[in-house]
Prior knowledge:
Elements: H1 7-22, E1 30-37, E2 43-50, E3 56-63, H2 67-71, H3 87-102, E4 110-116, E5 124-132, E6 142-143, H4 152-158, H5 169-180, E7 191-194, E8 201-204
Parallel strand pairs: 3-5, 6-8
Antiparallel strand pairs: 1-2, 4-5, 7-8
Amino acid sequence: DRQLLNRRELAGDIFRLRSYYGSRGFKEIQVDTVITQLDENRVSTVFQINEGLPVRISKLDIQGNEILENLGILTDLPIQEGDLFSSVKLDATRDTLIYRLQARGYPRADVMRTSLIPTKTPYNAQVTFEVEEGPHAVFGPITLLGNRKLSDGVIRRILPFEEGDEYSQTLRIEAQRNLYSLDIIQNASIDEAMDPTESFPDTIF
């Protein structure tokens, strides 16, 4: 696999390495290259990486209603105290919290993140997630549209929820997957209408 030396692209590689390390907790990262001419047609390229001292999370605080612990959504999160300050894992933690809340009846859940990183060593970061779970919801009336060959009863039997069940984004996705499992169905979409007064989503297939 022959590759031509492109010094402009080499500078881009250095930038990408710095970005990769920087987003994973290494704020002091330094990258340099050493190019050695081996012969008339070949060079050796070495990337020299000095990681420096990493940023670690010394305190991880999740603020919100006490209902969070009762729902069990705070266990086994992608990031924990003592881990490297990885923006990748922090984003994954926020997404995980939202996903778990949406699976337990909170379709309007949102999570804000704030971070405090000292400018001097040791780099002990403090991270806070502020959880706004929003109103609790259940599945409201289920309306079926466009089904000509299948009866409403057949479709309702393969749905994993009924009117009045606790809202779950997970069950909503499962419902669409169940519909596609029927060979007779070529297209199935699910639309939700949130009741602004009661926050009960109507589900339309």
